[in-house]
Specification:
Layout (H helix, E strand, L loop, with lengths): L3 H18 L12 H10 L5 H14 L3 H5 L3 H7 L6 H19 L7 H4 L7 H12 L9 H9 L8 H11 L5 H14 L12 H5 L12
Helix pairs in contact: 1-11, 2-6, 2-8, 5-6, 9-11
Length: about 220
């Protein structure tokens, strides 16, 4: 098992690169209202942002507020988002969450991660992505498939559970830098070092820790 001090040094070098390469943490999910972003993040689970943006391009012309989503029915919404994975479950969760935001929070998306995680379909990762994007607060590090892949590729965790990976990273990275981790690794994984096995020896982060070139953990 790798020592924590060694991992902290490696994490610091990785984060230093991410801060320079991706200095402004912003999601690529398109939205015009706070609740639209919540919906987009819920739709993005096990789905690409590119596909979600195609789906929401039409969807968000019809639905803008929590009330708009709360007033529709699961079958209609499911049909409208049927291109994404698990669309029936996501439709139910979106509508239930919209109703709760309307009834419990006066139609405003809560900025507290604990409150967000009480909404159907919103877990640790989604809640932290939401508060980071909407309120520029990062009380934790959200872990998605990209973050998990790189955490394992660079030997920063021994876990595969997303929340446990988050907790490991939160120990290694100073809190002031948490905001750079998810956004940076997502963009790096999307545009630089993709999940399929390839020669990544010349990639910036692989140069930080060359053994990563031979480590190809499963993305899921």
């Amino acid at each position: 098992m790798t020592g924590i001090s060694e991992r902290k040094k490696r994490a610091a070098r990785i984060v230093a690169y991410l801060k320079k390469a991706y200095p402004v943490p912003k999601s690529e999910l398109k939205h015009a209202t706070p609740f639209q972003f919540v919906v987009a993040v819920m739709l993005s689970a096990q789905c690409t942002d590119k596909l979600v943006n195609r789906v929401t391009d039409a969807l968000f012309k019809k639905y803008r507020t929590p009330k708009d989503f709360a007033d529709t029915d699961p079958a209609t919404l499911a049909h409208e988002i049927s291109s994404v994975s698990f669309f029936r479950t996501k439709a139910k969760h979106i509508i239930l969450s919209a109703k709760l935001v309307e009834s419990e929070y006066k139609g405003k998306v809560p900025r507290d991660v604990a409150q967000l995680q009480k909404l159907p379909g919103i877990g640790y990762k989604t809640a932290h992505v939401v508060v980071g994007e909407l309120f520029e607060e990062w009380p934790g590090i959200p872990t998605d498939t990209h973050v998990k892949r790189f955490a394992r590729k660079f030997d920063l965790t021994d876990h595969t559970d997303l929340k446990k990976v988050s907790k490991d990273l939160e120990v290694l990275v100073p809190e002031k830098d948490w905001k750079y981790v998810n956004n940076g690794l997502v963009l790096y994984g999307r545009y630089v070092c993709k999940a399929n096995k390839h020669d990544c020896t010349q990639h910036s982060l692989t140069k930080v820790w060359p053994p990563a070139a031979d480590r190809w953990p499963r993305a899921h």
